[in-house]
Amino acid sequence: MTWHFTEDTAAFRTAAGAHLAAEPTRNTVVLTRMDGADRLGWWAGPDGRVTGVLALSGSGALDLGATTEEAARALASRPGDAPVRVRGETAAVEAYARASGRPWKPVVRMRLFRLGVPVPPDPAPEGRHRTAAAPDIPLATAWTREFAAAIGDEPAEDYTGFAAERISEGRLVLWEAPDGRPVSMAAVSRTSEGQARVHLVYTPPAERGNGYAAGATAAIGRVAADRGATRILLFTDLANPTSNALYQRLGYRPVTDHLGVEFTGTEG
Length: 268
What we know:
The protein is an alpha+beta fold. It is built from eight helices and twelve strands. It has a twelve-stranded mixed β-sheet, sandwiched between helices. The two termini are about 25 Å apart.
């Protein structure tokens, strides 16, 4: 039983394709990040069956897909591997962190949801949605930075390219109040393996409490479905009961809990 690594996305798909296809929802983060990853990995047992996958970025962020605790512990014991941050299903991340021998702390606890039967917002928010366009890039860039700060991420210096990519591909919607002001946004990932993940659901503090996020979320879900996604996913922060309740009212159902940890020093 061992971990294998590659920088070649095609080789990774060949080796881990059956595992990715069998568990696409649990592997959503690896599937959406593998094209930009610095290194990809898979854990194979004596029979060749893959029961763990990962994507590692150059910034030291490690994302685990559907991975057994055994595979996570084996990964942590490898010499030379010392990611700064690890995210994935709670049991696997905790197994990795404890086996690493390095000081660590939890930074976010999340829940992965999948959309079942869509339920329109009730009551329906005032206003309407529209697909964001090039003139909206500055606003979407600023809101993306505010979103990152709100969820506890270290904001990047510039989110212009991040926002522009989603807007140019028609993957970001804005909710407008009746007077035409943008008051909320939501984006969706590219569709991969028949699924897409909603993200960047953000409403500025002054506009909250009016149902705008519900309207934007429902709208971007329809965009994903129209683009061929048969499974629509999203993550919520478990520390935010408001958003967890909102998405369940819209028809999202929990799949599994995730944990993000940071390592705070060297091996003890």
